[in-house]
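Task 17 of the worksheet. Students: predict the tertiary structure of the chain below and write it out as structure tokens. Keep your answer in the requested format; marks are given for formatting as well as content.
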Amino acid sequence: MFKSMQISASGMTVQRLRMDVIAQNVANMNTTRTADGGPYRRRLVNVQEDTNSNVPFSQYLDRSRNAFSGKGVKATAIVEDPTPFKRIHDPGHPDADEDGYVLMPNVDSLKEMVDMISATRSYEANVTAFNAAKSMAIKGLEIGRR
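Model answer:
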């Protein structure tokens, strides 16, 4: 029973990290000069199942008869999006090249909003699953009192 709560908690933690990274992307969508010298590069969170071994699917089926074997998810890395930068013509910009073009970050507000909605809904789904497990635990304790 507590494993289901731990799995939901791991999902909420990862989705919170995703929302933080998305917020950072949106905040820097017009940053043309970073400490590295170039425009800001969009960041993404890599997520994978939290497992310690590579178990074949058939063994998961065998294990599921005896006990639940899931461990949740974890963020493995925050990586930079390799998508090319946008070039806009703005000769008056301080970071414009000799032809008047400025390299802008590869952050697309529409993609970020879609990702934010996805992360928010995933977070909410994990909260719902966590609350359902908590409610079942409380009902189980109430049965023991009677």
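Marker's comment: The chain has three helices and four strands. The beta strands are 43-49, 73-80, 86-89, 101-104.
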